[in-house]
Amino acid sequence: LFPYTTLFRSKSVGATIFILGSGTLVLFVLALGLGYGDCQLWWRPIDHWRPVLIKGGLALVSLLGLSLMMMGIMHYSGQTTTANQQALTAWLVSLRGWRQFWLISQLVIIAPMLEELLFRGLFCRWFLGNHQRWQAIVSAGAFASVHEMRPSFSWLLYFGAGLILACLYQRQHDLRLNLVVHSLYNGLSLI
Asked: SS3 string of 70-119?
């Protein structure tokens, strides 16, 4: 989901063309999401903040609890962390200055925004209509598969996170809360 940031490291014309093409796809999804946001009146005020904050806090605590539990299971089975997290950490450590700041902003702001627009906004709202169980399962499965391709404890971790975020969206019907919770979760996972 971070195609333009890899331009900093691409060494061939083919890789650059692929990265620009995938970046265009990301921008297309973002444009669809902004259209979705315009239809959903994203900028309307939230009347009752306390229940929203409680739901968001519970979702964030659930995500962190799931992560701790799955990391314990993964550690017990000999896996230190997810392959996705290892790659991102190695990439983050290899960068310096503005490039490192750019990657962090991609991980904490852009990626959660695109993922929430795609997996909760499009999947839950547009593709699956009122079928809440299918919304949660399909969006969580797609979310997990984007982060981890093979069935593993890592895939289960991402599937669980996708379920939590899908349930949060189904209860709140507002992607803004999902964006904040997902961004906070990504930020905490970088620590």
From this structure: HHHHHHHCCCCCCHHHHHHHHHHHHCCCHHHHHHHHHHHHHHHHHHHHHH
